[in-house]
Fold:
Amino acid sequence: MKKLDNKNFKLVIGISLAVIVVMILAILKASTNENKPSGSLPSVMMNRESTGSGMAGSVAVSSLSYAEDSMGMYDQKLAADSSMPSPYPAPSTGGQTAAEAEPRIIKTADLSIGVDGVAAKTQEISTLATGRGGFVQSSTTIEDKQGYKSGHVTIRVPSAKFDDTVKAIKDLAVRVDRESINGQDVTEQYTDLEARLRSSKAQEEQYLEILAKAETVQDILAVQSYLQSIRYEIESLQGQIDSLGNQTEYSTISVTLTEEARIDIPAEKFDLVRDIKLALRYVVILAQAALTTLIWLVIVGGAILIPLGLLGVLVVWVIRKIAARL
Structure:
């Protein structure tokens, strides 16, 4: 009985040791999982894309799954080599705020004016634009059946010359029918785009560092997938910044021109003797025309009225004869 108790005791000790070993292994595994980064690279990229980059869905789902698996293996290598950068680039927070940045205002003006000569004034407006460092965006001139012209010209001038140019155009007009001036503040939008661009470029640099230290084909393909996405976002942001920059640096002025009613004054020099001679000449011409008309009436009228008169007399005589007999 004593030997049986010893055997049971050894069995219990063995089972206890096995349980302790299993528990230690489970604790070590849990500790390893806690130390591992909580977010995968695809989830980080998806969060970044959902904050305004407009790039969500730019990488195929299959590529993201493959990249996630590859970057999971890459994480283990990074844990062994602490000198390598993290595969999850942190966004840059440097840069000016909207309150600190230079104001960005999109200025536009729409004028409708009456002028003495549409073609000439259109040319003068074009000269105003080029003389102030701007350019003509479009120009159109139309002439109606009565010979009156109308036109439309759109110019772009540096924003610093905007007010001066509008005033100069109004000085060219006989009247100003309509004037509309607008300013749109895009400082906050411009600053936000610049901040997002800096952040994207910082992420691109860190991805390039990771790519330079990647060792396997899977690691290289995974990082290149995200490089392609971030570079596309950089191009999109840069395009938006360039567009806003152009609109704020050069203001737009649209002008509609209509021609004033004109009275044509003879430019010929006054000559009294000549005018008297012309008047006498026209008197003679009128007298000749009247005499010619009289001659035609006498001759043609006589040839027609005399036979008609004789016929009328004959008819009256016949009627009287018949009446006398009755």
